[in-house]
Amino acid sequence: MPAPVRLGIVGLGKMGLHHVRCARRARGVELVATTDSDPAAAARLDDASSFVGDLDAFLERCDAVILAVPTNRHEELGVRVLEANRHLLVEKPLARTTAECVRLSRAAEERSLVLAVGHVERMNGAYRAVAGRVRSPRFVEGHRLAAFDPRGTEVDVVLDLMIHDLDLILDVFRAEPVRVDAVGVPVLTDRVDIANVRLEFQGGALANLTASRVSRTAVRKLRLFQNDSYLSLDFQTQTAEIYSRDANAAPWGVTREALASSEDHNPLVVEHEEFAKAIRGEPSTLPSARDGARAVHLAERILASIEERSARWHGSAMETGPWVDAPS
């Protein structure tokens, strides 16, 4: 059996602590170091012996690094990790912009290092259960709603939450949309907090996605409609339902198949194990840097559509005035 990958985690916020817990359960990795720009973050660890305050000293201990810091620091810290010849898994999104994604990718390619992105929903039991059953969907509908959390508000909700579903949509369709039509508004921050986008693909297939970080109830669902079947995925419960046309089923000719992952299936643990496989040169289902860059590029197109619509609306409001007198 090969030696475990010596893993380090940068960032001990909410997501970083999840990674710490899951790294201790994952096969093929050994958590050897943690670090954070705030030394006081060490107190958040159950065992602070892994904490290293200096980033260079931290990198000396590791073969590979998971970067779980705010998105606006992904490029800066990611390039530094790669320049130290360490494999890297970046929490989603890969970076703020396509240009930043390209710089990260080049730094990895120049050193023949693994650079991956943490689109963890690919590891979700619901998605894994139906991935082999998706065949040219004609319509996809997704809702990803969450209560407000200051974490992640350095970017718009498109890069914060919707990015998960953008990655899944690109994986499902294996193509870029030919048309993007989006709307979004700030609510509790000065960035877009709730957004909806309609994506049209070659041949007329459509995807309609909504993301909100100002909702009361958490929802993470995706529904796919294709010839002869309808697939409903719940990422929170890691369950799926498939409704298929069946001429022998009464009364409507539809059969229902319920799918669920095992109770101990942890997508983040699987992500760590797939990272280790990729580092060892084994087949891995981990989303690549190219996957991450494609999702960020689509997010940029969506944000550009939102800005264009907002500009048109404000221009129209300025021309007509903010109000109309009521008829006498």
How would you portray this structure in words?
This protein is α/β, with parallel strands linked by helices. The protein folds into 2 domains: 5-120 and 268-287, 3-Layer(aba) Sandwich (Rossmann fold); 122-263 and 299-306, Dihydrodipicolinate Reductase, domain 2 (2-Layer Sandwich), CATH 3.30.360. The chain contains 8 helices and 13 strands. The strands form 2 sheets. It has an 8-stranded mixed β-sheet. A 5-stranded parallel β-sheet has the order 2-1-3-4-5, with helices on both faces. Helix 3 (74-83) packs parallel to helix 4 (98-110), helix 4 (98-110) runs antiparallel to helix 8 (289-320) and helix 6 packs across helix 8. Residues 322-328 have low confidence and may be disordered.
Summarize the structure.
Helix 3 (74-83) packs parallel to helix 4 (98-110) and helix 6 crosses helix 8 (289-320).
